[in-house]
Target: Transglycosylase
Amino acid sequence: MTMHIKVRRVEWLAIALLISLQATMLTWSARQPEHVNGVPILRVAAPKTERVSASISPYGPGFEQELLALFAAEKGYHLEIIEVDSPAQAMQALEEGTVHLVVGLGGKAPESLASPIVAGPAYATSRPILLHSSKRYTLRDEQEICDNPILTTQQRYLADTLSDAAEGVNCVPWTSKVDGVRVTPILDTLNEDRARFALVDDWSYSLWQPFFLSVKPAKTINREINYRWFWRSEYEDLHKALTAFWQEREQDGQIATLHERYFGFLPEEADYYELVNLSDSIRTNLPRYSDSILKYSKKYDIDPLLLAAVIYQESRFDADATSKTGVKGLMQITQSTARVLGVDRNDPRQSIKGGAKYLKMLWSEFESMDLDPWDRWFFTLASYNQGLGHVQDAINLSRSMGGTGRTWHDLKKVLPLLAWEKYYSQTKYGYSRGYEAVHYVENIRYYYYIMHGLVGLARPEAEHLGTLLSAVPSSWPVI
Model:
């Protein structure tokens, strides 16, 4: 069945008016889901967060949006996503029957939900994290939680966990809530040294951390934040479909695979000096090679920003870079590979040509596996680092250990095992520093994410990256 997704951004005033009208004018039977060409409409309320609708990630439209798209495709619904400014607004809309489903909310499931609202299973967790401006002191003692204003969002569970953390010092935290649920205004306030402390969830912080370098973690609060979907059980068909959907997800691992694509590359804490170096390289070194990156990314159907991320990982845009293993140049190509590719690896532009050509050759080797487009590129990057044969060994090893061998989520678990004799002795191509391949791929994914985000946020580096982003090939993975 064809799936349709329609995203609507509305002000809460409009939602409140709609709730009021429906509450006074419609009976319950009249609020049953309407249909579009025979397909039932599913109205979903979701907070305006990066997890729901991606604004900086190159890896898809958003984690929650893809989960919703998966549900709609499997169960046959036409989606309308209504973005709201707070969890309270989302839950009120659900209670009033304006929407049928609420997604993207974190916190404890309410102990008593107003019937007929149902809380789905927890499918992801995070923890609250207290942040501070690096231009001021970090948290020196627990009493400071109560002596200083702490910025936070409208998500109630954050303030609640802060109150729990302050119980040990017998004081009341001083919280200052900003409008909405987006963390970027808070991070910007700390980054500009207009506040000392803020409290967000560590999931959101990890997504935005590389773009706010003057914001540092002060304390992680040991409280789990669980994410769930909420819906109305009175829609019998929808209730059955959602219950079945979550039971199926517990079995097939699709949520773990999706989580890996959107978040699996994020470090626990960003390397400040590495990020500064990346920014400097984009502004000073990248422009020398932009024309060649554009030319050969177009020729070999590669996103220019991904190719730039590979070059940065390989050589930091240093055309004279030489490894102790003998690889040289911007793309760190071996002499034998350069000969096969027909390029002079010492020439920066030919190095870019050779690297792009080699990436596309490796990518083509996975054609028969019919992989998810992103997994196929992650396999390609691992092959560029360790060789195609070792990646094929890892695929076979994953399958022998009960995995699918078809996702990066599976492959990154077994690649490090190729350095252990117990495992590589059973393979065709033998020993491999597979752990290096995992580190290599995750670094490139991270740099690629950052470059994409710098453009989306219109940071100064975008002047040098925007042209590259505008040349993404039409064949590039689109979710």
